[in-house]
Give the backbone structure.
Amino acid sequence: MIFIPDKKVISVGNLLNDQTRPLKERFRALFTLKNVGGQLAIEQITKAFSDTSELLKHELAYCLGQMQDTRAIPVLVQVLKDKDQEPMVRHEAGEALGAIGETSVIPVLEEYSKDPTIEVAETCELAVKRLQWINGTKNREQNLSENPYASVDPAPPAETRNVKELTEVLLDEKASLFDRYRAMFSLRNLRTEESILALAKGLKAGSALFRHEVAFVLGQLQEEVSIPHLKESLEDPHENEMVRHECAEALGAIATPYCFDILKKYLEDEKRVVRESCVIALDMCEYENNSEFQYANGLSEVIS
């Protein structure tokens, strides 16, 4: 967390909620508020759930979960329950409730694990499993500390480090989603070419929720070997837009000139969430190539 005066937090919040400003600026504002943390930052983020951008609202929920502040629970429950919100936004609210780690939300997550929208149902099922695991595992801190990316993941890594075994679980569509996610995060944490190529196979296996998480993980790894696989999924017009959006952002994180060229082609995609993801991904490319420390640093003029 970083400290800035309340009036600066409000200024950043005003930028986040200003629909006349470029989406990339509003995203930087969001991640600045995430890094600041606290009640006032949560309030500013909460206001933006009335926006029309599915991508932005998805990221609002993601950031609230990563903050792991129980004060965000009421708004996340509200978003999860709101059938007028897009499935991608509701799914992320469910995941965020699991990320916060408060077991009192298990009943509402169990209720929505039966939601007719499969992405929402699967997410809530995973969140319940995560919370139950946290509540029942003595060595959870040691297991969770293995994550080299400092993200709050939907499942802990599996205990084995055998790539062949992990790949078999990852691609086994009869295995539980929780176990497949555990295999996914173990493969990510290994950070070898073999484990990354194994993960890339997951872009063709399982539900849209599963495939989108594989793309997210490949973006965390930022390895060029995954580019052809991410490109193929982004270019597939029949692929779920939630997966395509995550592939675009992963390419933005990898940030090679080739990624830049791929992303430019989809700035006019027929799916708004894909178009907007490419805008954000290209902004991420720019920051990666300018050696900026954090994505939110682009708001230095606001918070200085």
In short: The mean pLDDT is 93.
